[in-house]
Automatic annotation (TrEMBL):
Signal peptide start-end: none
GO cellular component terms given for this protein: endospore-forming forespore
Organism: Micromonospora endolithica
Name of the featured protein: Radical SAM protein
Lineage: Bacteria, Bacillati, Actinomycetota, Actinomycetes, Micromonosporales
Gene Ontology MF terms: 4 iron, 4 sulfur cluster binding; DNA photolyase activity; S-adenosyl-L-methionine binding
Family matches, as Pfam families: SPL
Length: 362
């Protein structure tokens, strides 16, 4: 069976058109490391005079979007980010090594979360960020951990506002995080989700089984038409296989699950690819997180501005309103559709990939 698994291909890598570094970022060793890394790739780094990023806005919203999406800024993280927030159901705590992503997913969840032009900012104060996590070890938030996850220790999510493998070749940040968690003298787990496949620098790293990399995957009508700039799903699954063979716990983030025409067949074909990708992996530790498509009035407006010709269905009239903790509305699938999707996924995953543990459905 293993011979049928997808072969690894050279990973797709983002080359920013403009890279800038703030003076504050250059005061940090990791900021200087990122600059050296980027320059070694033959990309010029513009040293800004002040800590404010300028020159991103264009004449039109489209131009601003295009400029921002092709800009990498090396900055210091905002002070508020040092106070970690719980991030159930994915993990106990979230922390950030970057904000923004160079890909162009038409449903991107960042659209409703981040404000301003979508520049990718990577954080120079990595050493301080990692050191600050120590205060949170042992402080699991009960809501985010079922009994089945207790052995993971305190979990830290590092991909809330970015895609780590889209940026690792430019920063080296997540590799250092893997090593930091491996050497940590406490039961902890680092987690992130990605739509990229660039795992070369992670294979062979001393990870101590403390990092779970989840690959965000989707049915072909979604991944091929709505996820511009990302790695293909076969490449993501080949990367998952490489990490699993290297002893990493791995995962699938099936998100966003969209009720496309003939969705049972389309998602069935995706699960068939997963079966092939994990075939013959010894001591496979595989989880699944199942997240249905949703949008807010704000994210819908931003996304329609970014992708005016999108074929992504965001019709409030066909959705159910759901209210968050602070009264914010989001639009999810109606109950009948949710039940059909959930029943199908939970049954098919268990049948086709019995080793896979489903962490949650939302
Ligand atoms: Fe947004 Fe994730 Fe796509 Fe990046 S990979 S554009 S963060 S959905």
């Amino acid at each position: 069976m293993a011979a049928l698994a997808p072969a690894a291909r050279p990973a797709r890598r983002w080359t920013p058109r403009r890279v800038v570094a703030t003076p504050a970022a250059l005061e940090h060793p990791h900021g200087r490391r990122i600059v050296a890394r980027v320059e070694a790739l033959g990309i010029e780094v513009e040293r800004l005079r002040a800590n404010r990023l300028t020159g991103v806005r264009g004449q039109t919203d489209r131009e601003t979007y295009a400029r921002a999406k092709s800009t990498l800024a090396i900055v210091v993280s905002p002070p508020a980010r040092r106070t970690l927030q719980p991030i159930a159901p994915s993990a106990d705590w979230r922390f950030d090594l970057a904000e923004g992503c160079p890909a162009h997913c038409q449903y991107c969840y960042l659209a409703g979360s981040l404000t301003g032009p979508p520049v990718t900012r990577v954080y120079a104060d990595l050493d301080g960020i990692l050191a600050g996590l120590a205060d949170y070890a042992g402080r699991g938030t009960v809501t985010s951990r079922s009994a089945a996850r207790v052995e993971e220790g305190t979990t830290f999510e590092a991909s809330c506002y970015t895609d780590p493998l889209a940026l690792e070749h430019l920063t080296g940040s997540w590799r250092r995080a893997v090593e930091h968690f491996a050497a940590w003298d406490a039961p902890v787990q680092l987690r992130w989700t990605t739509k990229y496949a660039d795992v070369d620098t992670f294979v062979g790293l001393p990870h101590a089984g403390r990092t779970r990399v989840r690959f965000s995957v989707n049915a072909a009508p979604v991944s091929e038409r709505m996820e511009g700039g990302t790695a293909t799903v076969p490449d993501r699954l080949a990367a998952l296989r490489r990490l699993a063979l290297d002893g990493y716990p791995v995962g699938l983030t099936v998100a966003p699950i969209i009720a496309v025409p003939d969705w049972r067949r389309e998602y069935g074909l995706l699960l068939d690819q997963v079966v092939t990708a994990v075939a013959g992996v010894p001591e496979l530790d595989l989880t699944a997180e199942l997240i249905t498509h949703r949008f807010t009035p704000g994210s819908r407006e931003v996304l329609l501005g970014w992708y005016p010709r999108t074929r992504l269905e965001m019709d409030e009239a066909t959705r159910r309103r759901k209210y968050g903790k602070f009264g914010a509305v989001k639009y999810v699938y109606p109950r009948e559709v949710m039940t059909e999707l959930r029943t199908w996924f939970e049954r098919e995953l268990v049948e086709r990939v019995p080793a896979c543990r489903i962490l949650y459905w939302t």
